[in-house]
Amino acid sequence: MIGLLVATLASAQTFDVARLDGDPVPAQVLAGSVESDFASVEGQSIHETGSRPRWWRLTARAPISPAEAPHLVLRFPYLNHVEVWRPGDTMPVRRGLVGHDADFSFSTRALVVPLPQGLATGEAIYIRVHTLTPAPMFVDVEPLAQVHRQDLRHVAMRTFVLGTLSVLALLAVGFWIGIGERSYAYLFLTLAAQALYLASVGGEVRGVPWLADLIGADPRVGRMFGLLGVLASNSFVALYLNLNDHHTRLMRALHVCNAALLLLLLANVGSAANVLGVLASAVFLACAVVTFTASAAGALKRQREAYFMVLSWTPMLVLALLRMGELLGGWRNPEWMEYAFPIGLAMGGLVLTIGLTDHMHQMRRDRDHASRLATYDVLTGALTRSAITERLDALVESAQRGRRPLSVVFFDIDHFKKINDEYGHRVGDQTLRIVSLRTRNRLRTYDLFGRYGGDEVLVVLPDTQLREALCVAENLRAAVNCRPLSIDNRLFTATLSLGVAELHHGESVERLLERADAALYASKETGRDRVTGYTASRLRTTAATPAANTANTHSTSTIY
Known about the structure:
This protein has 560 residues and is α+β, with helices and mostly antiparallel strands. The protein folds into 3 domains: 13-148, Immunoglobulin-like (Sandwich); 152-362, Rhopdopsin 7-helix transmembrane proteins (Up-down Bundle), CATH 1.20.1070; 385-559, Reverse transcriptase/Diguanylate cyclase domain (Alpha-Beta Plaits, 2-Layer Sandwich), CATH 3.30.70.270. Helix content is 52%, strand content 18%. The chain has 17 helices and 19 strands. The chain has helices at 2-6, 26-31, 144-179, 182-202, 209-217, 220-240, 243-246, 248-270, 274-300, 304-327, 337-375, 385-402, 416-423, 425-440, 466-481, 509-525, 548-551; strands spanning 15-20, 39-41, 45-46, 54-60, 70-75, 81-85, 93-96, 110-114, 124-130, 137-143, 406-413, 448-453, 456-462, 485-487, 490-492, 496-502, 530-534, 539-544, 554-559. The strands form 4 sheets. A 7-stranded mixed sheet has the order 12-13-11-16-17-18-19, with helices on both faces. A 6-stranded antiparallel sheet has the order 2-1-4-9-6-7, with no helix packed on it. Helix 6 (220-240) runs antiparallel to helix 8. It starts with a helix and ends with a strand. It holds the Pfam family 7TMR-DISM_7TM.
């Protein structure tokens, strides 16, 4: 849509175009001795695919007035160079986007030659074309004011495309350095190579004189950027879609494409023949087909990354097909295609960047989910054994260093196995969940509550002495036996046995838990439904009376 908005609208045909299959000396052409050898060409564009210079003739169909400062415009010349003889010229006007023939008065949209005298009907302009890029150059005559307007639009569009690719490449390399994800490295290489390729063949490199001189004389540099970009793109696709695991056949096909690209790179070093550009376009098309097929297959399997690849490569595949057909002489694409292809590259890079960022977010969400599963028990919402043990280690170290009190409470559900055997494991799980909810709600926000194993729960009470911890434990016991549990239309009572221990100076975590566990077993051995505290010299037990389950009253006894 953006390309259509900024594209130059097709105008009425201004010239009759003819081509001479040969390269006679200019004097023969200008004298008219080879006039009969020119063959008419349909349309209003110069499309030369051979590497040898060729002559073209543009014959005015109607008079062109000099009043509006008309200029001959050869749009989208890429790396081609031309020599233009206007009526009456004895020396040609040489034009090219880069090199010594570059005219910095105009943008890289076109090669522009002024026609100060205008043209009469039937007058001819002769053009000798040195082809470095086998793409059509659209021919027209535009007033100077229109040339400047179109140049401004062209500069804005190319700035948008190259700026987008450059910014995305910088973001990719930043993410690569920041998080070390290899996919971003391949994305950076892809985007950077695409930007350099577009700047090379589109003429923007003329802003860097030494690079402009190199590329203006040798099209292999820009072609090499294009081949490297496709290689990097293939590597990114293989890693992003995980083709080794999901699509091994397509991965082998991509390896074949990469081998062909490497061969073309080597051939490009030794030759600048235009046929290599055609072959490179064919391999790029094959890569696009393989990539699109892998993306479509992944999308059918609901692979999230594949959706972004389909969105990115669908327009690129269509544009590549249209481009290849034109290079092979099958058809002539509309002029707006010259904008659509670079825009497609920029938008494809943007979609891939968004897709890769989404992929990283998904990996982070999966990691956070896995971390939560490792930290919190799914059934009760309590900390897992490893999580609460790790936090207890840190709290004990802090308490020992700061000489602050710390206590722990071990408890489990009395006759829990009997509940499982009599009512089933589903009721047992619900019992454990309800008991965990009732007891956890009686704790302070900074107390720790963890499922230590089975129905055994560990509670860590920072900044709490034994006497206070016993009160907390008694509160936990009362929270459970204060009223019966109702599960699946069954009503039954549940009670807890609890053991409490306070951290001693210099004591290890293992010894602290051993004392709390001993106090828990003391509660079980003395009748259950009670709290036992482990002091330095004795176990002190708080036990429920027979009516405790309903009246919540209790008595205290001491075990020596």
